[in-house]
Each structure stands twice: as structure tokens, then as C-alpha cells.
Amino acid sequence: QAKKLGKAKYEVFDPKMYVQAVRRLELESELRQAILQQQLILHYQPIFCINSLELVGFEALVRWQHPQRGIIPSDEFIPLAEETGLIVPLGNWVLYEACRQLKSWQDKFPAAQSLSVGVNVAGKQLYSSDFLDTVDSIMAQTQVDAGYLKLEITESMLIKNTERVIEVLAKIRQRNIQLCIDDFGTGYSSLSYLPKFPVNILKIDRSFIIAIDNGKQNYEVVQAVVTLAKALNMKVVAEGIETEAQLNNLQSLAVPLGQGFLFSKPLTVELAQEMIVAQSSVISN
Ligand code: C2E
Ligand code: MG
Ligand code: MG
Ligand code: MG
């Protein structure tokens, strides 16, 4: 008995676990500071019309400019932000900043007037009782036209609290804000649920786009998604296009929009702006 207890005690004080827990607490308090001290920045990945290769907008992706560790990619702190609830203030800042930036581009560059911006929204944000108020106040503050804002949610967020989620999503659509299902095809949502959600864009996950080069059946899966989207009156965006072959296949499938490293990685504000300017010279010449 004593031996058993002793062992359990030892496990509680496993130094490795202790170090990990301390590291997490440090990271959490650093992230809290990062939000306050404006160490977060947005990068913008361009989204193109697959046929005309015209720029149609950007997806805003958050980065952490850490004073010691340099730029930290979202994968390395978004999960922690989600677990700790910090995702709510963080996500609200992202929404504000993306809207502010789009409006400023639209005011500055004629070619930016019809560009849209996509913003990722986490479950905790969508479920929070003041989400709609936050959206409204950000729209009012930044004066961005609702039609140019796209909120990206994932399938897994649709499975929880279905009735309430449908209500909130419907209210978002009533404001003419667009709604995307991000990483479509990777969640567990049953297809029969899809028509119930007032969502108007499907973003096909990168894993399907990668697979498209490897055989007829994968091509047909993407074709089926495109058909489904059409039937439900939804637009389609292909994520993670990396090769010419993928692009050709998506063109022949009549997928209208796409993003990926073949076109461009997520860009700093300055580089995104250069891309807008380059497009305007194409348009005016
Ligand atoms: P996501 O929303 O699906 O964003 C697309 C991710 O795929 C981005 O990674 C982007 O850099 C990457 N990507 C784009 N094209 C390609 C490609 O051709 N090949 C490959 N291999 N990757 C490509 P990133 O920026 O690291 O973001 C990862 C995820 O973190 C995002 O996935 C999103 O779920 C989350 N995230 C990023 N910013 C935010 C945010 O502001 N709020 C929330 N809640 N989540 C965010
Ligand atoms: Mg996204
Ligand atoms: Mg995605
Ligand atoms: Mg993805």
C-alpha cells in the first residue's frame, strides 16, 4: 500500500511534467501579454479566381511576433489560446484588425474596392453570448461593408449546440456577412446536416487538393463536393493549391476560387499591399 502511494506521489512530481506545466504557464502569461502589448500581427494569404487569376481577396492569418523567439506560427499558439479562452480577446482583435486593414486598402486603392477578407473564428468566440455584439461594434467602428467580410468556421463547430449555432449563423448572414466552412471534408459532420446551416461558402481542405493528383477517384471526390456545393447554392474555394497539375484539375472541375503556395504564401501587410497595387496597374493598363 505504502509503495503504491509512494509511486503515485512520484508520478505527480514527475520533473518532466513539471517542466512542461511551467512552460505552458509561461507561454500562457506571455500570450496574455502579447495581446496587450500588440505583439500579434496578421499575414494575408491572397485568394484568386482560378480561371482569370484575378485577386479576389485575402485570408487573414494571425502570427505572434515574440520579442525573443521571433515570429511564431499560429499552429504553435492557437491551440493554447483555445484551451485557455484567450482565443476570445485574440480572435476579436484579429476580426477588428482585418476589417480595419481591408477598409484602409479599399479607401486607398480603387483596385481593392471589391476585395474581401476572410477571418477565422474559433468555437469559443462563436459560442460566446456577446459575439454578435462584438461583430456589430467592429463593423460600426471600421465602417467596412459587411458583404466583403467572410467568417470562417469549421465543421466541428457545427456539431455542438446545433440549434443555437444555427441561430447565430443566421443572424450573421442577415447582416450580409459571408460564412465559410473551413477545412471542409475533415470534420465529422454528416452531409445531411449541411443544408440546415446558413453557410454560403465551402473551403475544400488541402488534403483533398493534394490527393487530386493521385488518381481518378480522388478527382471524383472533389467533383462530388463541387456538385454538392452547387446544389446547395454555395460557392467553393480550394485550399492549399501547390502544383500546376492541381490548378489544371481544379480549372477543369470549374472550382471558381483558390488559395495556396502555388499562387502565394501568406504575405506581410506591405507585400499584400504591393500585390493590390500590381493588380491595379494590370486593370488600368
Ligand atoms: P486555415 O484557416 O485552414 O488556414 C490555412 C492554413 O494553410 C494557413 O496556415 C496557411 O498558411 C496554410 N496554407 C495555405 N496555402 C498552403 C499550401 O499551399 N500548402 C500548405 N502546406 N499550407 C498552406 P497557418 O497560417 O499556419 O494557420 C493554421 C491554422 O491556424 C489556420 O488554418 C486556422 O485554423 C488557424 N488560425 C490562423 N489564424 C487564426 C485566427 O486568427 N483565429 C483562429 N481562430 N484561428 C486561426
Ligand atoms: Mg481559414
Ligand atoms: Mg482552412
Ligand atoms: Mg486547412
From TrEMBL:
Residue intervals of the EAL domain: 24-280
Protein's name in the database: Diguanylate cyclase (GGDEF) domain-containing protein
Organism: Hyella patelloides LEGE 07179
